[in-house]
Write a structure and sequence with these properties.
Uridine Diphospho-n-acetylenolpyruvylglucosamine Reductase, domain 3; alpha+beta; 5-stranded antiparallel β-sheet; 2 domains; 3-stranded parallel β-sheet; binds iron/sulfur cluster; binds flavin-adenine dinucleotide
């Protein structure tokens, strides 16, 4: 059985408190949302933060505001909530479909939107136990010097497997990143780096607080996922599309 390493646990009630904790701890602390990605990673010693800071008690991160001028989705909404909510239709159908295709019902009940956007990159040489990774002398992404996917490469090729990411990108989503010193909004399409190690532009002291979207009135969207195992699996290929239909009067 793989055990979690020891860690300190904090559960702030406000975004300000959370930002202040991360500011003080910097690289020693990691935000914990549903834990469906981070906790298995910690058991495999891929990530060993000294402190976990739960985001689940921050009320503003659990809210949804959908109206004619646009939508604001708290980063701690669960994927089950998004998949089941009938307001996530037409323009937002791609997001609901992507959320419903992540992992299994049990995982979707815990997994959050923010966690799905920020999840670590995956690779067969990395998503293994500590002993397995040690037996190949680890790899470039963690504790080693060689990339076993492309041994001549100085760059890690691991990629994010987020399902909601492509759907939200097709919808032009932005994310609000909050730290103690500043708040900034970033287009989701600009959030990721083409690097399996430094894969996200979110700084360690920043919390992804919410996802915002412009009005999707008149839009329709869809998300399709190719996976090896039909019941549940990470995407091998993701396709998301959004279109705005306009009726033109023909004389
Ligand atoms: C068996 C299995 C199958 C899976 N299948 C899929 C799949 O098909 N598709 C898919 O996309 N994923 C899949 N996953 C991965 C994971 O379950 C989901 O991506 C999930 O949405 C992660 O969300 P979480 O809330 O549990 O994140 P967590 O595990 O809590 O966090 C993930 C990462 O994001 C960071 N983080 C979380 N929330 C925030 C925030 N608000 N601000 C800043 N940083 C944050 C954490 O520090 C951590 O680095 C699977 C996992 C398992 C175990
Ligand atoms: S460095 Fe290479 S082997 Fe290691 S996770 Fe990245 S792609 Fe995989």
């Amino acid at each position: 059985m793989m055990r979690l390493p020891l860690f300190e646990f904090r559960a702030p009630r406000t975004l300000e408190e959370a930002a202040s904790i991360l500011d003080g701890e910097r690289a020693n602390a990691m935000p914990l949302a549903g834990g469906t990605d981070l906790l298995p990673n910690m058991k495999r010693r891929q990530q060993v933060p000294r402190m976990l800071m739960s985001l689940r008690h921050i009320e503003s991160m659990n809210c949804v505001a959908l109206n004619d001028s646009g939508s604001r989705l708290g980063a701690c909404l669960t994927l089950s909530e998004i998949a089941a909510d009938r307001r996530f239709r037409n323009g937002l159908t791609a997001l609901a479909q992507a959320a419903s295709l992540v992992a299994t019902p049990q995982i979707r009940n815990m997994a959050t939107l923010g966690g799905n956007i920020c999840l670590d990159t995956r690779c067969n040489y990395y998503d293994q136990s500590y002993e397995w990774r040690k037996s190949i002398n680890f790899c470039l992404k963690k504790d080693g010097t060689t990339c076993w996917v492309a041994p001549g490469s100085s760059k890690c090729m691991a990629v994010s497997s987020t399902d909601t990411g492509p759907a939200l990108m097709a919808l032009g989503a932005r994310v609000r990143l909050v730290s103690r010193s500043e708040e900034r909004e970033v287009l989701l399409a600009d959030l990721y780096n083409n690097d399996g190690i430094d894969y996200i532009k979110r700084r360690p002291d920043e919390i992804l607080a919410e996802v915002s979207l412009d009005s999707l009135h008149g839009w329709k969207s869809t998300y399709w996922k190719l996976r090896r195992r039909g019941s549940f699996d990470f995407p091998v290929l993701s396709v998301a599309a959004a279109v705005r239909l306009r009726l033109l009067a023909v004389r």
